[in-house]
From TrEMBL:
InterPro entries: AAA+_ATPase, ATPase_Atu1862_pred, HerA-like, HerA_central, P-loop_NTPase
Keywords: ATP-binding, Nucleotide-binding
Pfam families in UniProt: DUF87 (PF01935)
The species this protein was found in: Cohaesibacter celericrescens
AAA+ ATPase domain span: 24-213
Taxonomic path: Bacteria, Pseudomonadati, Pseudomonadota, Alphaproteobacteria, Hyphomicrobiales
GO molecular function: ATP binding
Protein name from the UniProt record: ATP-binding protein
This protein's record includes keyword DNA-binding: no
Length: 494
């Protein structure tokens, strides 16, 4: 079946069609200066193809979140960790949910890291979930820059690698990249070169016009065409569009962006004598402030939505696991059962070194098998339970001072979640009058095999005043926990 979507009109009012199946195989590049109508084109493309294919939008300005109300896109706010975003992306593909990654409000470095994590989550999914999907990246020059800028080199490389995977290797995984950029000169060439379809809008700089002409196979003298294009008009070429270049006028859209182009309006009539009162009088706190619209769905809501969906429609006729049994258990019994499940999970070979997202999925399966409670813990609670389980507190729990252990847990909550297990392991050793854990034990509590990573963790916590490290004359390490006023016995780091 051939699916054609309506982009608008070409000359003489004839409809302009795009072959959606061909687009999935050949990818698309959209170029045009600010105000040329790129976002309008992308919105038209998304609206026309919404019922035919899954859509994933990387949205740096939050313009496409309005698709959620009419077309049911899930809005993913980039407020969690990179691991959380990768996990959400995997679930988006697994359950074939159209989604918008909202990067509004993040600086350039964080936008690149968040987009890279999300794209990698889409890319690294199991072969069973390689469903076709349009991946639309607006302002692609931010995520695949041709040269380094003010962002960190690590963020640039990570983001560029993710964009390269999308455009170069994504086709076999069902991912069809649709990238839009203001300037071709700012976009990495190896990313732009993988597109076979082009929609070129209004462009003024000579270097961008020349490069656009090269991509379309036009002569240099024909490059002036791009300077004379009206807003919303694009020169189209490619196997999913036209074999010869055609000028397309993009049609109307049904949704609108939260931001729009400024409109002219008359200046207010003001008395110049009142300027001092208007501008320099002390504030009262009643001045109007920019209202930030709440997101359509928070990340937590998206996680809950994805976690409760079925794996695929093919399971529609099967009976769901009965998780709504009335357990009648106390909070203490619930914690004990969850801790026992986690201990068994971590006892599996290589479990201590698996990513949190993988462990959480395994944990959910074990909880459903156990059938002791109605709902499984969310990701936040799981991370807290995992930190305690990795510290192995149950081995000497009876000998620990209860008040000091609660205080240690309170202090650990001030650290990043993946470091809490390390602090609790040190607290357990100090409270139990045990030697300081080795680098390997600390690394295992953190979820890695790298002893050098353990040394970095100790340095990190020492710099922030949580502990003090010292060596005795034999080279054994002693860790003093400042807030608890206790220290470990000397222990060899190796």
């Amino acid at each position: 079946m051939t699916v054609s979507i309506d982009l608008g009109t070409i000359k003489l009012g004839q409809p302009a069609h795009m072959d959606l199946e061909e687009l999935l195989a050949t990818r698309l590049l959209v170029q045009g200066n600010s105000g040329s109508g790129k976002s309008h084109l992308l919105r038209r493309l998304l609206e026309q193809s919404a019922k035919w294919v899954q859509q994933i939008v990387i949205d740096p300005e939050g313009d496409f979140v309005t698709l959620a109300e009419k077309y049911g896109h899930a809005v993913v706010d980039a407020v969690g960790t990179e691991a959380d975003l990768s996990m959400i992306a995997a679930r988006v593909r697994q359950h074939r949910i159209s989604a918008v990654l909202n990067l509004e409000g993040l600086d350039a470095d964080r936008q690149m890291r968040a987009a890279a994590a999300f794209l990698n989550g889409l890319f690294d999914i199991d072969r069973d979930y390689w469903y076709p999907a349009l991946v639309v990246v607006d302002e692609a020059q931010l995520f695949a820059p041709a040269a380094g800028g003010e962002v960190s080199e690590e963020a640039r490389r990570t983001s560029l690698a993710a964009m390269t995977n999308l455009m170069c290797r994504g086709r076999k995984r069902g991912l069809a990249g649709v990238i839009a950029t203001q300037r071709l000169a700012k976009l990495a060439k190896n990313v732009a070169a993988e597109a076979s379809n082009f929609l070129m809008g209004r462009t003024f700089l000579d270097i961008d016009m020349a490069r656009a002409a090269d991509l379309l196979g036009l002569e240099r003298r024909q490059a002036e065409t791009f300077r004379n294009l009206d807003r919303g008009h694009f020169v189209a070429l490619g196997p999913a569009l036209y074999r010869r270049s055609e000028t397309v006028k993009i049609g109307a859209v049904e949704t609108s962006a939260r931001s729009s182009s400024p409109k002219l309006m008359p200046m207010p009539e003001l008395n110049r004598e009142n300027f001092d009162d208007l501008l320099f009088k002390p504030g009262t706190g009643d001045e109007p402030r920019r209202a930030i619209a709440p997101p359509t769905q928070t990340t937590e809501q998206v996680l809950h939505q994805l976690a409760t969906l079925r794996l695929d429609e093919k399971f529609a006729g099967e009976t769901e696991p009965q998780l709504d049994l009335d357990p009648g258990i106390s909070a203490q019994e619930r914690d004990e059962i969850l801790h026992a499940i986690l201990v068994d999970l971590l006892a599996e070979p290589e479990a201590a070194f698996q990513p949190v997202s993988v462990l959480y999925q395994d944990f959910q399966v074990r909880c459903r098998i156990d059938k002791s409670f109605k709902t499984t813990p969310d990701l936040q609670e799981f991370r807290q339970l995992l930190a305690v389980a990795r510290a192995g507190v149950d081995e000497i729990e009876e000998s620990l001072d209860e008040d000091q252990w609660k205080q240690a847990g309170t202090i650990a909550d001030q650290l990043p979640e993946d470091m809490r297990g390390v602090y609790l392991l040190l607290s357990k050793a100090a409270l139990g009058k045990k030697p300081c854990p080795t680098n390997l034990e600390l690394a295992t509590a953190y979820g890695t095999r790298s002893p050098s990573r353990a040394r970095f963790l100790l340095t990190y916590m020492e710099e922030r005043g949580f502990l003090v490290c010292a060596n005795d004359l034999r080279g054994n390490r002693i860790v003093t926990l400042k807030d608890l006023g206790i220290q470990t016995e000397p222990g060899s780091p190796d």
